[in-house]
Amino acid sequence: NSTTGKYDIVVIGGGPGGYVAAIKAAQLGYDTACIEKRGKLGGTCLNVGCIPSKALLNNSHLYHQITHDSKHRGIEVEGASINFPQLMLSKDKAVNGLTSGIEMLFKKNKVTYIKGSGSFVDDHKVNVKPIDGAEDYEISADNIIVATGSEPTPFPGIEIDEERIVTSTGILSLKEIPKRLSIIGGGIIGLEMASVYSRLGSEVTIIEFKDAIGAGMDGEVAKNAQKILAKQGLKFLLGTKVNSGVRDGEVVKIEVEDAKSGEKKELESDVLLVAIGRRPYTEGLNFEAIGLESDKAGRLVIDSEFRTKHPHIRVIGDVTFGPMLAHKAEEEGIAAAEYIKHGHGHVNYGNIPSVMYTHPEVAWVGANEEELKAQGIKYKVGKFPFIANSRAKTNFDTDGFVKFIADAETQRVLGVHIIGPNAGEMIAEGGLALEYGASTEDIARTCHAHPTLAEAFKEAALSTFDKPINF
Ligand code: FAD
């Protein structure tokens, strides 16, 4: 512990994977320390990911509603305008509240919080370089959990200055609203940031190499999402390759090329966001020195119980296999601590929801049509549009639909895909259905409150085997 430098469990990284693992380990009775070098707990998610992006999404949506979607509701607002520094402060306040909340949870659960960077000395010893510049020291542990997370994947040849050419980190802390914003990558992070700045008045162009947006989305849902976002003013250059992006004074010059015809074009933008994905982060961890392995993508190699070559060193979250999502990292954090304590743990990788927090939101869990077709699995689809849902109509918020995919014979739920208001909350019911092996009939026979958006969920389930009532 803090006086002897010997712990039962040391966790390296204080993001959603690491901090949850540390709290769970302490709750299971282990003397636990968590090393974090950022100076704040919460990792990418709380500091430069999920939380700041959702703060900006929520407040920009509110502004857009006030300015574009209130008059017809009988709400007259004169002279609404954006105070950008205050918008950013409000985001920082949300982040600070949550990160300091984790510090309190560490205290409550008696997790030792070590502010420094951790580096392997041997398979039981970790060198700590304190962030306050004090001298390095060593700690040791019976078990070590690595949760060092990920970082934005660089675009070869494009130099990031986090001012004009930015990653997801820079775009969350711009000094002013760019007149023109170009984004490389039509994935979730790119589209969320596109929504934020488009609502604040930027002209936004999304450049995507593939012919569709939204990596991992059901094809039909992705097409719909693109249509709706285009209607909101986002410009899409699909099937388009970026050749270069160079800062020239206060503008960025981007050369793009049509992936099929090879035709080249030059675009000019005030800010360029590079959002082509994330890669595992292991800088300074010195994992090679103790014989741990990484694959070609840089992910630390583990077995099904998160164990490395040294079975008492486990790896969780973005730095290893699986979707790079906060809730996936958290599940693994719990399971890793439970494996150490009980020898068994549980993460259902077939049931990890994804959400894009645009408006409308897009959320899905389980398999999509393309995956089932590729596996030759016979399925039925049931869909219900929000235009036929009384709550959505009442709220004048009717874009989108709920789509169920069920096994053709047994009606067991295989996947749920929602584009619509509050999809991100509603998908939890889909996750529960998958976890319990529910059939669509189970859902259709479950009484849902009226008037709620969730009635669309129920009727979409019903539509896989019978006629819906309200459509
Ligand atoms: P991280 O959160 O990356 O945490 C790792 C921590 O380890 C970091 O704080 C780092 O400083 C620390 N560290 C690294 N090396 C060392 C070392 N040697 N010593 C000490 N400390 C070290 N996911 C969602 O589920 N929902 C969302 O809405 C969402 N939105 C996102 C929006 C953006 C803009 C971005 C960038 C990401 C978003 N994500 C979202 C992804 C999510 O942030 C990650 O999946 C999640 O943070 C992964 O958690 P982790 O604990 O594995 O790693």
UniProtKB/TrEMBL annotation:
UniProt xrefs under PROSITE patterns: PYRIDINE_REDOX_1 (PS00076)
Gene3D superfamilies associated with the record: 3.30.390.30, FAD/NAD(P)-binding domain
Cofactor(s) the record lists: FAD
Residues bound to FAD: K54, G118, T148, G149, S150, D318, M324, L325, A326, H327
Broad enzyme group: oxidoreductase
Record keywords, A-Z: Disulfide bond, FAD, Flavoprotein, NAD, Nucleotide-binding, Oxidoreductase, Redox-active center
Annotated ranges, domain Pyridine nucleotide-disulphide oxidoreductase dimerisation: 352-461
Molecular function GO labels: dihydrolipoyl dehydrogenase (NADH) activity; flavin adenine dinucleotide binding
Catalyzed reactions per annotation: N(6)-[(R)-dihydrolipoyl]-L-lysyl-[protein] + NAD(+) = N(6)-[(R)-lipoyl]-L-lysyl-[protein] + NADH + H(+)
Binding-site positions, NAD(+): G185, G186, G187, I188, I189, G190, L191, E192, E208, G277
Cysteine disulfide partners in this protein: C45-C50
Domain FAD/NAD(P)-binding: 7-333
NCBIfam families: lipoamide_DH
PANTHER family assigned: DIHYDROLIPOYL DEHYDROGENASE, MITOCHONDRIAL (PTHR22912:SF151), DISULFIDE OXIDOREDUCTASE (PTHR22912)
Note: The active site is a redox-active disulfide bond.
Membership in a protein family: Belongs to the class-I pyridine nucleotide-disulfide oxidoreductase family.
Name used for this protein in its record: Dihydrolipoyl dehydrogenase
